[in-house]
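Render this sequence as a predicted structure.
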Amino acid sequence: MTARTAEIAVFAGLRGPARTFTYAVPADIEVAPGHLVHVALGARAVPGVVISLDGAVVDRALKPIERLAHPLPLLRPHQLALASWIAERYRCSLADAVRAMVPPALAARARGGRLATARGERSEALFSIAPAGAEALAGNLRLGARQLATLRALVAGALTSADLAEAGGSSVAARALAKRALVVEGRRAVRRMPAEFALAEADRDRDSPATEAQAAALAAIVGALDAPLDAPRDTRAAGGAPHGFLLHGVTASGKTEVYLRAAAETLARGRGVIVLVPEIVLTAQVVARFIARFGDRVALLHSALSAGERFDEWRRVLDGAADVVIGSRSALFAPLERVGLVVVDEEQEPSYKQESAPRYHAVDAALALGRLAAATVVLGSATPRVTTYQAARSGELALLPLPERVGERPLPPTMIVDLRLELRAGNRGTLSTALRIALQRTVATGDQVILYLNRRGFATVVLCRDCGHVLLCPACEIPFAYHVQAGGRGAKPPDMGAKPPSTRGAKPPDVLVCHRCGRREARVPETCPACGSARLKQLGVGTQRVEEEVRAAVPRASIIRLDRDAVRAKGAHAAAYERMRSGKAQVIVGTQMLAKGFDLPGVALVGVVNADTVLNLPDFTAAERTFELLTQVLGRSGRGAAGGRGILQTYLPEHYAIRAAAAHDYATFAAVELEGRRRFGYPPFGRLVLLSTQAKRQDTVERRADELASRLREAAGADAEVLGPAPAFAAKRAGSYRAQIVLRGRDPARMLDRVTVSGEWTVDVDPVTLLG
């Protein structure tokens, strides 16, 4: 029989390839690709999205689409095309890719079998005076005082309940009048405003002259915007328009202003803009500048919003009320009708890689969206990934350099301090002599200081000095970190800056924390559980210990700490930034949160307490990540007229990543790093697939890993080599043992077409780290 059919990606938790299910389209339902619908899958009613329509002849009875879950298509054609690309590239189900593009409030409501719009929307009552109400006023109809005041308020322009209350009327009176046909009651949607719109940021640079490099970069981007939409969007295509750019600018070179002006040019051409940032809380200044420049045309989409706020923002984009979308990686899926520009700020950040299905990388997905939607894509960074840099060198992207800071301010000169020499000199503290002196002098002159260490807590391990026993997390079998709670030794005081009261002689309210699974042990043993000795020692350095030593070195300075422990409360990061910006705090001690988003002209010194914490990790990106973090955090210094400097403490002063970061020399670092990647076949000279599995029993994991590795090796060809199996870097997490296999080669994912991988395995194509 012949019937209209639809291919539908269903949201039913199914794992497997990028498949869809075919359903019949009833004659009384008008559907189009992108519609959210209800269908039956087995005995369940589930939501799904229509991928395509087909009038093919079918030789079997098909289940029909039951009903629409939303009256309008929720996904645009280019979104469906991007979902297909993600499913194919990252070996996930098409349903997973499509579902990532649907607001959670809608998908959840559709699963419950009710109209998807009902849950997400918030509305308020609107009132207007009816003709009979105007006649009643003129004819002195007998009315109560509150009803009379209400009618008069409506005549004067009141609309909402708040308007009526302010004018002496009320919504209760208005509804009573509506029953008498004297007032008309309606409703309108109310936007739940995300907190970021309250950020105060003056748009100081709107009319400032562009630097020569900024002007050249903007001209290239505008040229791509003006290319015909059907022109080849590939820098390598003869005569084609480039669709992808790498805006490689040193810290404080004015990349954000290029984004803003490119966005304005895009909007002037009637097309929309998507701006991705790594984390909203850490890049609040970028968000504030876009809001200052474009106002209500901006919508925010990120996971920290409530379901209602996220729905409101998404709906404004779908309705065309907002055409500038800012957010974390999922903002890439905003339902803009005509995407013209996609910006990925700080493109080097690992957070652009999704850690659960679909495991896409937002940078690569942004470039794919640019090709599919004929949009221009700008990747911005002071320290781009070497894979991105190599793409620019090879012509896959167009390189736009910003080699100097705005205002011709120099990059901060940086001293490298060899910590081995400090130990030989008898200094066992966290601050070298040079850093302590520089800290004291900077504070004395009234300037500000940033001290960076990428480790939380007070100490990284608690060890018995008699038997060597280490206190381990029972679920992960790694050392507990020792943390001092608020009010204890070295802890941040309640006012985030005042000198703390003395705790001499008092036992600090300490706690043990597993930095892998988050387990907390509130009672720290006073004696060794293995031998009973009381000689337990906290070893290693965390931000809390650095803070304690800083307070001893500059006791009159106002000091704050910024790490994941200190910013658990909503708004804590913004509060810390505001204290530094206003000058109420002089020293900030923190982790990699300090490496971006802190544009503080008063910072004259940046000290890196230990540059080696990431460098020594067994991962192919360790040197790259070290260089990125050091360059970014050192770049926080010297942004004001007074200039600045950096001091970098390390046990590996000769390492190329350390020396290049101190010299702000990206080209030298990239040359050495790329040569190493080429030698061992790591990206960009080869691709990776990470296969990982876990189970409660270690022998189960080992047997499963050995079996899959054997089958992979039997099927291996020129596409890839099989590395492993081996225990994962986090060999045990939250009570489960973990193992992994790595496929490395020209096209390792192709091996998975020849070998069936069961659902017990997680497949991560193009991982950003192998330290799972």
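Summary. The chain has a mean pLDDT of 85. Residues 698-715 form the longest helix (18 residues).
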